[in-house]
Design brief:
- This protein is mainly alpha-helical and about 260 residues long.
- It folds into three domains: about 100 residues, SET domain (Beta-clip-like, Beta Complex); about 80 residues, Serine Threonine Protein Phosphatase 5, Tetratricopeptide repeat; about 70 residues, Serine Threonine Protein Phosphatase 5, Tetratricopeptide repeat (Alpha Horseshoe), CATH 1.25.40.10.
- The protein is built from eleven helices and six strands.
- The strands form three sheets. It has a two-stranded antiparallel ribbon with strand order 1-2. The chain has a two-stranded parallel sheet with strand order 3-6. A two-stranded antiparallel ribbon has the order 4-5.
- A hairpin with a 2-residue loop joins β4 and β5.
- α5 crosses α7.
- It is globular and about 55 Å long.
- About 25% of the residues are buried.
């Protein structure tokens, strides 16, 4: 039981190139890093290799910090998870001012609670039929809440992400781009500066634009992703190599045209 508790408090969630969870691992030296809801470092993975990357200038003597939880959550939920899993109360600047909480929960409460429940019920589908069921539910909720929830509401944002994933898995590229484009404004709001999740989202949207021959728009989106990825992942990362390849293809096509 003691070993289980130690793993729970010190393990890292291993993610793939698109920041999707694929497992957990123990990295003893990295477990020494403390938490901040607005950290100066992020952790990304190259396979099972953990990489610690700084996302802003760090002063001499300044402590390196990472976020133990998803910063998109409202302050109370972040603190509840930190208390439950890591047994401490966070008093960072982000938790003290709660500046963005009102925007994160904007819109009619009944509407976003329904969307929140729907998002929490989603399990990774194993078939096209299951993806279609998820897409249909997302479409219905997004349509019915058009006037009740802004895209900046975090549960509406998660629903848009879910709809985008479903469309990609079903090959509905135009609709996937529609949902993905709607997420970029909220992502910019909640993941300012250099954040790997924003970079990955920009790359996904850029690839959808490229697939639909929207080459000027795709190039701008991919450039924005590149400027973030070179900080959060570094130029040698496989995700950066994939981004550079599609970016160069886009540039070549535009030169020919």
């Amino acid at each position: 039981f003691l070993l289980f508790l130690q793993v729970t408090c010190n393990c890292f969630t291993i993610s793939n190139g698109e920041m999707q969870d694929v497992g957990v691992g123990l990295y003893p030296s990295m477990s020494l890093l403390n938490h901040n809801c607005d950290p100066n470092c992020v952790i990304v993975f190259e396979g099972y290799q953990l990489l610690l990357r700084s996302v802003r200038e760090i002063q001499i003597g300044e402590e390196l910090t990472i976020s133990y939880v998803e910063s998109l959550m409202p302050t109370r939920e972040r603190q509840k998870q930190l208390k439950r899993q890591y047994c401490f109360q966070c008093d960072c600047l982000l938790c003290q001012d709660e500046e963005k909480d009102a925007e994160k929960l904007a819109g009619e409460e009944n509407a976003w609670k329904e969307v929140k429940d729907a998002v929490n019920e989603v399990r990774y589908p194993k078939s096209k039929e299951e993806w279609q069921q998820i897409l249909t539910r997302c479409q219905n909720l997004l349509s019915s809440n058009m006037e009740h929830l802004p895209d900046t509401n975090i549960y509406q944002l998660k629903m848009l992400d879910c709809a985008m994933d479903a469309c990609i898995n079903l090959g509905c590229w135009e609709e996937a781009l529609y949902y993905g484009s709607r997420t970029l404004g909220p992502y910019r709001l909640y993941y300012p500066g250099f954040h790997p999740l924003r970079a990955v989202q920009l790359m996904r949207v850029g690839k959808l634009q490229y697939a639909q021959d929207m080459f000027p728009q795709a190039l701008e989106t991919l450039k924005e992703a590149y400027n973030i990825l070179k900080v959060t992942h570094g130029t040698d990362h496989s995700l950066m190599q994939a981004l550079m390849e599609i970016k160069e293809q886009c540039e070549s096509i535009m030169r020919i045209q």
